[in-house]
Specification:
- It is a single chain.
- This protein is mainly alpha-helical.
- The chain has a domain at 16-51.
- The protein has helices spanning 18-32, 38-51, and strands at residues 2-4, 7-8.
- It has a two-stranded antiparallel ribbon with strand order 1-2.
- The longest helix has 15 residues, at 18-32.
- The N and C termini lie far apart (25 Å).
């Protein structure tokens, strides 16, 4: 994902597993979009991944 201005977004939790990666990508996008602050967003991602 590119954030503009030459910045590139790197995955927080790199993984190859499709379902897990989908949850992480969705959570990262919500954080970047400002829907969640970083602390809350990472917590939500961790809970969802753990539930898998």
């Amino acid at each position: 994902m590119h954030l503009g201005g030459g910045a590139q977004w790197e995955p927080i939790f790199p993984t190859n597993e499709t379902q897990t990666q989908s949850l992480i990508d969705s959570g990262e996008q919500a954080i970047v979009a400002g829907k969640y602050d970083v602390t809350l967003g990472l917590g939500r991602i961790a809970q969802q991944v753990t539930a898998l």
